[in-house]
Amino acid sequence: MFVMKCRVCRGRACLEIRRHNAAFCTEHFLHHCRQQVDRAVHSQGMFTHDDRVLLAVSGGKDSLMLWDVLLKLGYQVDGLYIGLGIGDYSRESVGRCRSFSSERGACLVEVDMVSQYGYDIPTAASVARRATCSTCGLSKRYVMNDVAMKGDYVVLATGHNLDDEAAVLFGNLMHWNMEALARQKPVLDAKSGFVKKVKPLIRLGERETAAYAVLERIDYIVEECPMVADNTGLRYKDVLNVLESKSPGTKHQLYLGYLDRGASYFDDADSAARDVHPCGFCGSPTTAEICAFCRLQRLATDEQPKLDVVCGQAAGDGDDG
Amino acid sequence: MFVMKCRVCRGRACLEIRRHNAAFCTEHFLHHCRQQVDRAVHSQGMFTHDDRVLLAVSGGKDSLMLWDVLLKLGYQVDGLYIGLGIGDYSRESVGRCRSFSSERGACLVEVDMVSQYGYDIPTAASVARRATCSTCGLSKRYVMNDVAMKGDYVVLATGHNLDDEAAVLFGNLMHWNMEALARQKPVLDAKSGFVKKVKPLIRLGERETAAYAVLERIDYIVEECPMVADNTGLRYKDVLNVLESKSPGTKHQLYLGYLDRGASYFDDADSAARDVHPCGFCGSPTTAEICAFCRLQRLATDEQPKLDVVCGQAAGDGDDG
Fold first, then answer.
1. Which residues of chain A lie closer than 8 angstroms to B254, CB-CB?
2. What residues of A are in contact with residue B239 (Cβ under 8 Å)?
């Protein structure tokens, strides 16, 4: 019987990574994951051991394994959990984040959308007649930035992995969404009103983040968010999975090749970033009079008069910098 | 029973084109195809009715239907058939081209690789240890340009359709092949030693070119070239077909969106085009000392001494301008 051997110690391997043409035992697989994260952090200049990092955590495998990796690498990382008000899913996911942080003595910042911003995601999406994932993304980006700025964090990290980024890039290319292409980088530097944003998991696929979480016995929420229906993002992931299975390294090549060779050509395409001013309500930088978040919030809450504006317009969607 | 109606005359439709959200009867479908070709020719400034056009024809649906369309639109188009020496496939395909041209009183230029250049494609690929499709592409590009230049044609046209171009673009993006991205345009202007090259079929998918050929009773060779095995180009076509079936317009959006919004960003990436000089043998412009075609020809023929060069190097592959 053929037994895969660990690339490092030649012991029995537990996992093969075809795009690296390598297999690893448990110990060296975990080490490999940490190494890949540290390599992304260093090579892209994401942050140093002196920086206070805020990591957005959902209770899923990616964000919790990243928190674990960063803590083990000695970085100063607080978690940020945003309660979106999505029934059992939210109740279970916050529980995983609390257990994780208390077991490690790490700081978890919790923000509840309903009590702090007056709405939950399903209601807001319905009232604003906006797609749920879009409503959620807009809300999370605003809150993450807000908490990071007010908490004097140097950088905001998210758990987007290689599969996520490759699929988003794929979609941006299929639609030649130039603004999004210009912004699709693992590091977006701080600028007036926006905290620096980084994605330290870009060198790990989701099969690897899941394996890491299982091997490190991290109790994460396995279920996908129940609001995510069949969307084009998942379709692009499926297509990339088909190509990856035939040519291991396809996603790596697409996304990291973009960063190496393609991305710099699109620097000029981020026009929205050049023309921002303070939102009339909250003061956050926006390309519109009132930022997309405030428009959504006013629509979704009864406490303040509704504005006569249309949500979901392109201009407001560029606010996330 | 639901009967599709022609968008133009409301008569019974024979074909639906989902990406245009339209259906057509035979007459108006044929008119639609000619209109799409004429639109590409005009909007991209490919050629005028005063220009002598050389169209590369293989005997397949795309090149023969394009010849038919261009003749019906009143353009001056001669065909160029290149005999590649691929057994029955070559014998059958030249027959279709001869029948087509004689029925229409059009001029067909024939070039036989073996008698005029001393080698056939299968032998050359084997001797040069180069992939067959790559050997064939290199040979055809050289011969097409050579015949067009010597015959004083203003422009060389090829029958690449929307499916072809979308799949090639897809592959160039997956690999971030910057040189190829910079050159992937439906019009490459003439420059020292290179004739102007155009692709008038970029607005028609291969389902449409096939339907046109059938409806116009064009006798084309249905078989694919027997040398084409499963290659990544076909894999990309499969993937795009999956996406197209779920979202009609995917290929159009990818390729024509690239031309509209993406392509101009890559103008600087065509470095090979800037540094060419005459080939030491044939005088054609090349980035190497001896052009890739001459290197291949010397390897593939016994008539001249073999050169001590390696075929298939990247530098030589940029010769097609």
1. 173-174, 176
2. 239, 242-243
Cβ atoms within 10 Å of A58's Cβ, excluding its own: 25
B242 chain-A contacts, CB cut-off 8 A: 239
Are A176 and B246 a contacting pair at CB < 8 A?
no
Q: pLDDT, tens digit, for every residue of A266-287? A: 988 876 666 788 898 888 888 8
Confidence of residue B321 (pLDDT cuts 50, 70, 90): very low
Q: Do B254 and A178 touch (CB under 8 A)?
A: no
Shortest alpha-carbon distance between residue A290 and chain B (Å): 29
Q: Which residues of A touch B (CB under 8 A)?
A: 173-176, 178, 232, 235, 239, 242-243, 246-247, 250, 253-254, 257-258, 260-262, 265-266, 268-269
Cross-chain Cβ contact B174/A235 below 8 Å: no
- Interface touch B239/A235, C-beta < 8 Å: no
Residue B174: which of A176, A178, A254 has the nearest Cβ?
Answer: A254
Secondary structure, 3-state, chain B = CCCCECCCCCCECCEEEHHHCEEECHHHHHHHHHHHHHHHHHHCCCCCCCCEEEEECCCCHHHHHHHHHHHHCCCEEEEEEEECCCHHHHHHHHHHHHHHHHHHCCCEEEEEHHHHHCCCHHHHHHHHCCCHHHHHHHHHHHHHHHHHHHCCCCEEECCCCHHHHHHHHHHHHHCCCHHHHHHCCCEECCECCECEEECCCCCCCHHHHHHHHHHCCCCCCCCCCCCCCCCHHHHHHHHHHHHHHHCCCHHHHHHHHHHHHHHHHHHHHCHHHHCCEECCCCCCEECCCCCHHHHHHHHHCCCCCCCCCCCCCCHHHHCCC
CA distance B181 to chain A (A): 10
For residues B5-24, average pLDDT? 96
> What are the pLDDT digits (tens) for B174-207?
999 999 999 999 999 998 889 999 999 999 999 9
- Give B266's contacts in chain A (Cβ within 8 Å): 265
| Residues linked to residue A191 through DSSP beta bridges, in sequence order | A194
Measured distance CA(B25)–CA(B271) in Å, rounded:
47
Please state, in angstroms and rounded to a whole number, the distance separating the CA atoms of residues A174 and B254. Answer: 5
Query: What are the pLDDT digits (tens) for A19-72?
Result: 999 999 999 999 999 999 999 999 999 999 999 999 999 999 999 999 999 999
Distance from CA of A258 to the nearest CA of B (A): 6
DSSP state of A308: S
Residue A316 has, within 13 A of its CA and on its CB side, a CA count of: 21
In whole angstroms, what is the distance from residue B138 CA to residue B292 CA?
Answer: 8
Find the residue in A nearest to B235 (Cα).
A243
Least CB–CB distance from A175: residue in B232, B246, B253: B253
State the pLDDT at residue A270: 79
Residues B270-306 have pLDDT tens digits of 766 667 888 988 888 888 889 999 999 999 986 553 3
Q: Tell me the C-alpha distance between A262 and A266, whole Å.
A: 8
Whether the CB-CB separation of B56 and B156 falls below 8 Å is answered with: yes
Closest CA to A291 of A259, A319, A255: A319
Indicate yes or no: CB of A176 within 8 angstroms of CB of B265.
no
pTM score: 0.87
